[in-house]
């Protein structure tokens, strides 16, 4: 038994020694373990590669900057003094400026875009709202006083006009072709430092339900937008107008990379109506609606969570006259499907008052259609 164990030990020792020598001298002689083969797809050399971004956007900026203006506004703000300072006894000992109502001059700044060689400028309504004086400074150094042609608080847009010759204008881009990731430039007058261009990309399209305006369909961008940029231009890489910068999401008051612009399609529609009639007329249904959540869809036995749930109906309004009532779910307007309450609001607003359209609703587990005569959206106080 000892002899067999000795032979086994010697054989094992010799085998390990031979394996060690081979691994040092000729490792390729050793057998290799079979492993899984990973196959990856390689793009062919002939495949089209993404377009190379230009090293500079000076051509786009050069085309757009002359049509972007700085807007300076001023208004009188009355402040109430303490009643005792109006007493004749106190006026004998104190200067008159300490008594009565005092008027202070409040000023603000913003931006605008020249859209017509006739002097029409589009800007945000909050830039020129309640202004007693509006001064416009062009990029070429010229200045002029402006008058307000009309405004629309529902979209926060306003049109003002100046009387100058040889005005540069900005062309409108086709926003429908815009995609997330496209390069955009924001041009304006941030913090009053002067005309400034910042660059970013389109971060999102169709942003809504932000609580900024009544009608929202914003372009979101990370191009730096700061106070003073309001009303300025958001242009594409060719220098065409894609939107009007209007708001930022910020906790500090400065840019955090989340800015919102009103798309050029909305700007064009509002601008044309204001120039033509001085105001904007929109369709009105007279309902209060909310989004259909998956939970609501399940409770109403809807296949998909879409449409707008009618939560309230204005008495004697168009919806009330057509027999619509709370609890109905609005599914389509003139054959166009309704995604949510915001989409419903935009579709109704785009209809002409006094026109009759079929509206699809979901009631008591069944789809129905009602004819509604669209009303005129009432102008709220201050609008």
The chain-level structural class is: alpha+beta
Helix fraction bin: 10-25%
Shape call: flat
> What is the count of β-strands?
21
Supply the number of helical segments.
Answer: 8
The CATH superfamily of the largest domain is identified as Trypsin-like serine proteases
Instruction: Give the neighbour order of strands across the main sheet.
Output: 5-4-1-2-3-7-6
Mean pLDDT, rounded to whole units?
81
Examine the coordinates and then state which fold CATH places here, giving the name of the CATH topology of the largest domain.
Thrombin, subunit H
State the CATH class of the largest domain: Mainly Beta
How do the helices and strands follow one another from N- to C-terminus? HHEHEEHEEEEEEEEEEHEEHEHEEHEEE
Per CATH, which architecture of the largest domain? Beta Barrel
Total tally of structural domains: 3
Strand percentage: 25-35%
Radius of gyration: 34 Å
Q: Give the low-confidence spans.
A: 45-49, 89-100
- Biggest sheet character: 7 strands, antiparallel
CA(first)-CA(last) distance:
110 Å
Topology readout:
Blueprint: H1 2-25, H2 58-64, E1 68-80, H3 88-91, E2 101-114, E3 120-124, H4 125-128, E4 133-137, E5 143-145, E6 147-152, E7 157-161, E8 183-188, E9 196-207, E10 218-221, E11 233-236, E12 241-248, E13 259-263, H5 264-277, E14 283-284, E15 287-291, H6 294-299, E16 308-313, H7 318-321, E17 329-333, E18 336-337, H8 341-349, E19 356-363, E20 366-373, E21 375-376
Antiparallel strand pairs: 1-2, 1-4, 2-3, 3-7, 4-5, 6-7, 8-9, 8-11, 9-10, 10-13, 11-12, 12-13, 14-21, 15-16, 16-17, 17-18, 17-19, 19-20
